[in-house]
Structure formats: structure tokens, C-alpha cells
Amino acid sequence: MNVKQFDLNLLILFHKLYLTGSVSQAADEMCISQSAFSHALARLRKSLNDPLFVREDNQMKPTERAHLLANYTEKALPLIEQGLSRVAPFEPLTSEKTFRIAATDFSEFCLLPKLTKHFASVAPKVKLQVLPASPLPVKQQLSQGNLDFVLGFQHQNSEMEGVKHLTWLSDEYATLVCQHHKDIKQQITLEQFLAQKHILIAPWGENAGVVDHALASLDLTREIGAQQASVLVAPYLLPNSDYVLTMPKRIATLVADDLKLQVLKPPIHIPNYFLQLYWHATKSNNAAITWFVEQVERLFVES
Question: What's the pLDDT at 284?
């Protein structure tokens, strides 16, 4: 028999009648009419070419074929029901799962030190495999199936169809210059900002960044003197130079003292950035994914 042409719902009806021995009781428990139940039973009998049940002493007695079929439905139906209603559990203390994450150096720097320290105590066997960030759209990266998460850097908190996300960090920008800059001391004017050569942080070699977009809204442009792919490396180009670098304040304040840099307020409005944790919507009921998201939320959002 071709199972593709068989109505598997009839097996639920069969099993209920096998357990109760009564059409009326089975119909009541399935919340359908006796007439509908009888019509379905007739279809099943025709499909299997066997009466399956014979009325005797006001009871529906199973045939040999029915007893044989019941041996399988008794095992199969509970397994199917479990598969539909239960999510595979995730046990962090014993799990050896490897979470695969695509990230830039900046998002790694912000997330991983705190997260790995936490995992060492709550999930000691769990592994993190961090892969280089890609310029491809987040949904396309996740759809390829080899990633659990993508760490994103955005300037607006927006939804994407088919993708779930958690905003786990938000911050503003700061402008950095050398403490010994010949023209700039303690604050920077728009005129000074436009007169200097700038360092552009461009992870994928793009020609413009958030500063350029902010300037463009004012019909202004800046001169790029150097381009750097890494947020973490860029401030090391500033000492003993006249370059200007506008970057996430979180890093700027960490390196300023060691590199003898001034941390200044940008002379133009630059929107705050958001660090996002993205995962595919098809994994929303995956217990391991849910657990990971909960840990990030607990460490960075609720703290």
C-alpha cells in the first residue's frame, strides 16, 4: 500500500475504536458524530480490504487484521504525539554542543569575554566556534544552515522576515584624536572636523560609513586619509598623527589613556548603534538556541 495515498487520520479513529469497542463512545471521545465516524470506518475497511471490527453482543470485536494493526498503532501514535508536542531538551551542564556564530571583531570583543566566563560555570562542555562576519544579508547567512547565530551591527532596530533577534547592547559614538593634536584641544568644532583627514572603518571595504551618511544629510563630506577593516586596530593609527577617528565610544574610552588620545563629542549627530543577536525563525523552538538567547539576555540586557 502506498502510504502517500492513505489517510493517516483513519488510524487515530481505528485505535480509538479498538480501545473502546464502541462506535458511539469512540465518536464522543473524538468529538465527531456517529455518522461521521461510521463513514470514516467504512473508508478504512475499504482501504485495508478487511472488516476490522465485527459487531458481537453489542460490542465491536476486532478481527485478526485489527489486532495486528493495533500492535503498531499502539506504538506509533504515542511517538507521533510526542514528536508534535515536545521539544528536545537541552542540558547545559552536560551538553557538548558547539554553537557556530558569525561575528566582527568588535561584536566578538563586546560579547565573548563575559559570555565565555559565564559558560565556564553553567555549561562547561559547550563550545563556541566564531567565524568571520560576512557582508551577505543576515537572512541569507542563516539560511545556509551552517550557523546558529549572526552577531549584527545596526543603526536601527528593525525586524526581518524569517529572522529573530535580540538587541543586547546599544551605545553612542565618540571622536578620537591624539592628545598632542596641533589644532584640536578638549573639543572639536564642525569646521575642525571637516578640515582634518579621517580614518574610515570599513569591515568589507565599503566607501562610506555612518559618519559619511550623517554628513551627507547636511550636504557635507569629509576627507578619508586611511581606511581600516578592524574597529579594534583603528585607534592605534592615531598616536602622533593628526588623524580623526569616530568610532564606538565603548572602545574609545577603553584605549584612550594607554594611547594618549582625546575622547570628544562628535560635532554632528550620529545615530546610536545596536548590537544584535540574530537566529533563524525555524530554530525558535530549538531548546539549545532558546537557552543561548536567554543567557545573552540575562548577562547583557537584564544586568
Answer: 85
Three-state SS at 10? helix
Collapsed DSSP state (helix, strand, coil) of residue 291: helix
Are the C-beta atoms of 172 and 245 separated by less than 8 Å? Answer: no
DSSP 251: H
Cβ-based neighbours of 116, under 8 Å, separated by 6 or more? 128
Q: Is the pLDDT of residue 4 over 80?
A: no
Q: Which residue has the cell 543561548?
A: 292
pLDDT of residue 303: 65
The answer, yes or no, to whether residue 292 has pLDDT greater than 80, is yes
Which residue in this structure is represented by grid cell 533563524?
Answer: 280
Q: Which long-range contacts (CB under 8 A, 24 or more apart) does 136-140 make?
A: 138/163, 138/278, 139/163, 139/280
Going along the chain from its start, the domains and CATH numbers come out as 3-85 (1.10.10.10), 98-171+274-301 (3.40.190.10), 173-271 (3.40.190.10)
User: DSSP string spanning 192-228?
Assistant: HHHHSEEEEE-TT--S--HHHHHHHTTT---EEEEEE
Which pLDDT score, from 0 to 100, does residue 193 have?
Answer: 97
- Do residues 197 and 242 make contact, with C-beta atoms less than 8 angstroms apart? yes
Whether the CB-CB separation of 165 and 149 falls below 8 Å is answered with no
| Sign of the dihedral defined by the CA atoms of residues 17, 47, 77, 87, in that order | negative
- Residue for grid cell 530549538: 286
Tally the residues of the chain.
303
Query: How far, rounded to the nearest angstrom, does the alpha carbon of residue 47 sit from its chain's CA centroid?
Result: 45
pLDDT tens for residues 33-62?
999 999 999 999 998 899 999 998 888 999
* Phi–psi pair at 28, nearest 5 degrees: -60, -45
The pTM (predicted TM-score) of the whole model is 0.73
